[in-house]
Amino acid sequence: MFHLRVIVPNGRTDAVLEALRRQVGAAHVVLLRGVAMDGAGDVVEAAVAREAADAVVAELCRLDVDHVGGITLEAVDTVLSDAVDRAEHAAPGDGADAVVWEELLAKTGEEAKPSVTFQAFLTLACVLASVGVVTNSPVTIVGAMIVGPEFGPLAALAVGLVRRRGDLLRRAGLALALGFPVAMLVTAGVTVLAEFVGLFDRTAVLSAHQVEFVYQVGPYSLIVALLAGAAGMLAMTSAKSAALVGVFVSVTTVPAAGYAVVAAVLGEWDRCLGSVVQLVVNMIGIVLAAAGVLLLRRRRVGDDRPLVSG
To answer: What confidence tens digit (pLDDT) does each residue in 182-192 have?
Structure first.
């Protein structure tokens, strides 16, 4: 269930109210006249079933409210109301299966920004992965997988491909194209320093067997990436955020970047190349599977409407 708040300029309020009345998934419509401080206008609020939210937002956008006013959707976990129960029952489909495209665009767009925070998390994850490599510790590598923020831009690439959003593709591509090289460069500096002060033994690193999966590319590398990408996009579109932790643990992206750096510092170029290939295979597999899930879900609900808001 969503709480919907719409800021409407004078003269368009009746059209907004009529649009909400036509939606079987809307309940508790409230009108507050003349309360908008940013320009003369009214505020309309309503409870909207998740499975009807995309249709409601699309209708409001057709009324140009997203440009002349404002639309806010806020997820609500608990609502005690018979009217809301009837609205959810009347709305077509199931809330768990509904894709709210504007919500997904906002979420992936925010996570795809090449921000300082994103870079910091990615760098820390790569350094942590390098520690897992030199200490032959799969547990540390799993920790690096969880810390890594790279699934956000990868999901944004999938959404951008499906929705043909060039701005989202550019933003996510920039985050990855800048993020990984910078993180790997910092990790290389840390690894060189650790080798100089004798924190790890070259022979011990090269003989480590528990972390060989990082640079050994095979059919299962792509299979796991495809499964993880599909699960990750399902989790994002169904608001099952807890499932994303399993996605983070299953994909070998950050560990591959960390291993590539350690192998390069040690002059093991075969292992370095294998790690880079592993990284690329995983990222491509995630994006393709995530885009495939979005295409299947859009076809299932018959959603062929283009988004009109930017």
So the answer is: 999 999 999 99
